[in-house]
Amino acid sequence: MGWFSTTPFLNVPNSTQITYRKSSWWKLNQQRLTPWIFLFPGLLLFLVYVIWPIFNSLYISLLQWDGLSPAIYVGLSNYIELLDDEYFYISLMNNLKWLILFMLAVPIGLGLAIFLNQTIFGIRLIKSLFFFPFVISQVVIGIIFSWFYNPRGVIGPFLDKLGLSNYAILADENFATYGIIFAGIYPQIAYCMILYLTGLNNLNTDQIEAGRMDGAKGFSLFKNIILPQLKPATFLAIVVTVIGSLRSFDMVAIMTQGGPYGSTNVLAYYMFETALSEYGYRMGYGSAIAAVLFTIMMFYILFFIYRMYQSEKKGL
Amino acid sequence: MAKIILDNIAHTYEPNVNNPIFALKEMSLSWADGGRYALLGPSGCGKTTMLNIMSGLVRPSHGKVFFDEREVTSMITEDRNIAQVFQFPVIYGTMTVYENLAFPLKCRQFPENQIERKVREVAEILNLQDYLSNRAKGLTADQKQLISLGRGLVREDVAAILMDEPLTVIDPDLKFRLRRKLKEINDKYKTTLIYVTHDQNEAMTFADNIIVMDQGEVVQAGSPKDLFERPQTTFVGYFIGSPAMNLYKCSVSSQNEISIGAKAFKVQTNINSGSDNLKLGIRSEYITVESEHSDNSLEADVIEVEDFGNYKLITASFDSLKIKAKVKRELDIPSEKVILKLPAEHCCIYENNKLI
Fold first, then answer.
1. Which of A142, A251, A299, B237 is the most exposed place for a label (fewest CB within 10 A)?
2. What is the pTM for the complete model shown?
3. Residue B190: left if φ>0, alpha if ψ -120 to 50, beta else—which one?
């Protein structure tokens, strides 16, 4: 066995050789791939129904096309035309009015939520009744409000007494938009209210008790202790309200169809009108309006995503 | 600052039921001004209810609460001038540390310069002076708990600071430091501190008066020494001390002698009762290991000897009774039979689980 002692380490018997377990590619990458597999159906739909239409509209906005005849490439001329379009500016201004006035839904919703956040008999029924405007169809709300505003409707007789006989707000080109916004806010308040009611349910009682012991009362207690805890609800309420105001379409379509004289038009409705109604079938021009609306929303959404990212980085 | 008196207090959370369960059974207690108290008891014994009655968050179903001579039973929390520190730190996240500490004074409309002086003083005691301009949200759990405490301390006239298991979320080594800090604060400001806990070590090291509660009743109030040496009930003997007090059923043989089975022990209690529910209790710390027999000694079989580093714990059996004895670690313990002595002066006799 002389040879054995000279090369003791090289002579490893076969049976003790280390064998590596063969792992398949799938086993090695399973952890990394699983989320993507679960996300795949959603991503696919998102791609087909969101991403692709966005880019397709951007492309269409460069065309002159009625939807049937062959499309003609016209470059940026739709956008240039938009810059000189009076109705475009009216719609943009109206969108701004919607945006500003719609924000009222947030504090009003908060007020209602606080008012309803008590334990008395039947409060759940009352809460659901307050939430009702959000549940019923926007069409119904639009029709109800049109009837309210009718000079022979509900508020007509009261306006008569104020000296405004036969006044129809929806026929007044200066105020019709406000009439529609008022109708639009009605269900939005209910939505904000529900968001705040959930927030109020999750308040930290320790903090309120500590605040009371520190001597905070009334508004001070509300501002310093309750409102900061409602921050997530406020964030959500503002986001849905802003988006809701920018995409306002149905109320306008139901109550005035943009009239009188286009004075209640908003971007979403104007886009529909030029692209898809009997007034135009100008797909390219409508898409250009859509592109502008999309840009405004994108700025806003990116701003909020940035804010959200920042606050999450800070650990809240 | 005030003496707090609970006069015939009782509380139930179901006032409209015929035979309600009382979370707190009728009792009277008074808390001296400037005292350092611990309220000790197992979960659900009524500690927090009692605290909330003092702070005004709960209105007692029976009895009255006084701060000095002033009756505050129906007074709301805001007007009682009391501070409470909760199990989880309560901070106002949108405010800085300074604003947090100043908040109770702001609410009471103190002048700005007085607020600043007081806040800085308290921040110094709590080692928070470097963080005053930081957002309170970003601090560590123990710093947040200090802020909760600080909000009680800035008010010089606060009747008492009630603490409901305030150190539960704090790391063990910080717990020790914070407890010492609380003692310092109590020495310096003479603020009454009432500390609720279910941890006996915390209670023993913190308080000069411990109130032990069980099932809605105060079972014993006294110094840590009293609780340790003369537990008023078998519950206290069992609940306080580690290991729990040794407790054995026994019977009277003469006025100063009891017997467990056939074995007789001398005690220093005069027993005049013929009750058949008698128990002998002795702390494992007082049981000694002897080399030869004398009065009150017995020979037991060693079951186990555990070395805890600073002491040894002997578990032995005698006539199917388990005896635990805590002895010095240097002591050599025989491996089979050991002679244990139960000194008469440390034997407590319980009739119906109450000390005679």
1. A299
2. 0.72
3. left
Q: Does residue A186 contact residue A141 with C-beta atoms inside 8 Å?
A: yes
- 3-class SS letters over B225-251: HHHHHCCCEHHHHHHCCCCCCEEEEEE
CA atoms within 13 A on the CB side of B116: 4
- The pLDDT value recorded for residue B1 is 64
Spatial separation of the C-alpha atoms in residues B212 and B39, rounded to whole Å = 6
Q: Which residues of A touch B90 (CB under 8 A)?
A: 204, 206-207, 210
Q: What is the pLDDT of residue A1?
A: 42
Cis omega (within 30 of 0) for bond into B243? yes
Q: Which two tokens stand for residue B24?
A: 């707190």
**Whose CA is closest to B146, among B120, B118, B166?**
B166
Mean pLDDT across chain B: 86
Mean pLDDT of each 10-residue bin along chain A, 316 residues long: 48 58 80 93 96 93 87 88 90 93 94 90 89 91 90 81 80 88 93 93 87 84 88 89 88 87 89 82 90 90 84 64
Given B76, B94, B107, which is nearest A220 (Cβ)? B107
Q: What is the DSSP letter of A171?
A: G
Domains of chain A: 27-60 (no CATH), 81-313 (1.10.3720.10)
Q: What is the ipTM of this complex?
A: 0.71
Domains in chain B and their CATH numbers? 4-235 (3.40.50.300), 249-355 (2.40.50.140)
Give me the residue from B77, B88, B94 closest to A228, CB to CB. B94
| Whole-Å CA distances, B268 to B256, B258, B346, B353 | 6, 10, 8, 18
CA of residue B35 relative to chain centroid, distance? 13
Structure confidence by residue, pLDDT tens digits, B91-110: 888 888 999 999 988 888 88
Residue of B nearest to A208 (CA): B90
B137 and A315 in contact by Cβ < 8 A?
yes
Chain A residues closer than 8 Å to B108 by CB: 215
Among B84, B87, B104, beta carbon nearest to A215: B104
Q: Distance of CA A230 to CAs A186, A243, B138, Å?
A: 22, 20, 19
Task: Indicate yes or no: CB of A213 within 8 angstroms of CB of B103.
Answer: no
A217 touches chain B (CB under 8 A): yes
Q: Which two tokens stand for residue B299?
A: 């020979």
Q: Are B38 and B210 in contact (CB under 8 A)?
A: yes
Cα first-last separation, chain B: 37
Residue of B nearest to A221 (CA): B107
Residue A62 tokens, joined: 């460069």
- Residue of A203, A204, A213, A316 to mutate when probing chain B, most B C-beta within 10 A: A213
**B221-257 pLDDT tens trace:** 888 888 888 898 998 888 888 888 888 888 888 888 8
Q: Which residues of B touch A220 (CB under 8 A)?
A: 107
Please give the pLDDT value at position A22. 67
Residue of chain B nearest A215, judged by CA positions: B78
